[in-house]
Amino acid sequence: MSRFEGRVAVVTGAARGIGFGTARRLAEEGAAVAVVDLDESAAEEAAGRLPGTAIGVGCDVANASGVADAISRVVEELAGIHVLVNNAGVTRDNLLFKMTEDDWDVVMNVHLRGAFLMTRAVQQHFVEQRYGKVVNLSSVSALGNRGQANYAAAKMGVQGLTRTLGIELGPFGINVNAVAPGFIATEMTDATAARLKMDVEEFRQLNAEGNPVKRVGFPEDIAAAVAFLSSDEASYITGQTLYVDGGGKLG
Length: 251
What we know:
By secondary structure, this protein is an alpha/beta fold. The chain folds into two domains: 8-182 and 218-243, Rossmann fold (3-Layer(aba) Sandwich), CATH 3.40.50; 183-216, no CATH class. 46% of the residues lie in helices and 15% in strands. It contains eight helices and seven strands, in the order βαβαβαβαβαβαααβ. The protein has helices at 17-28, 40-48, 64-78, 101-129, 149-169, 187-195, 200-208, 219-230, and strands spanning 8-12, 32-37, 54-58, 83-86, 132-137, 174-181, 241-244. The chain has a seven-stranded parallel beta sheet, sandwiched between helices. Strand 5, helix 5 (149-169) and strand 6 form a beta-alpha-beta unit. It is globular, with a radius of gyration of 17 Å. The two termini are 34 Å apart. The model has no long low-confidence stretch (mean pLDDT 96).
């Protein structure tokens, strides 16, 4: 498949997990990929594992000047930009009475401010060429999850941002959509199991039993959805949030 032949894609938080799975899928389908991550060495290492043309870029997505520099570098080294996947994220879970202001600010800054800054940085290029695809990563936690007031608020904010930018940027040939994953087996969810003092496989099985398809998701599941929304096949879709969660609580 080569849906992205001649396209340049930027994926944030792409050194591992969902971000890397997405970067790999886009690269396999022909895109030149910029792997953006806070850890530049990890970004470069991840880029080295992708097929085709790929670069690793270190960037704090919550820092405006750093974001501007990163996008300028991508455009210069890869000769353009066509797809942006705002995946970078962190968790600082705690119940409200234990949650610190720093817990709140860090999560908001990476998820919501980061998506805002990255999209603002690429929109000029997208508007000029009258073409662009933005896919933001939300979460089922946007609907509320105990101990994740910060994360849930940020991820629902991402959906509001997505809807609004779909309205604003649609007339310029730019599609903006979001994917809201359910439980995905990654290092991040494995760390949650450790924090809860649970065996990783037991934790995954517990979550698998909570949805109709009776399995957990994997980065490849999210990458497939992101690739579709980033492609021209989705040109009549904008401002939407697609839940990829095995059916969630429908069962």
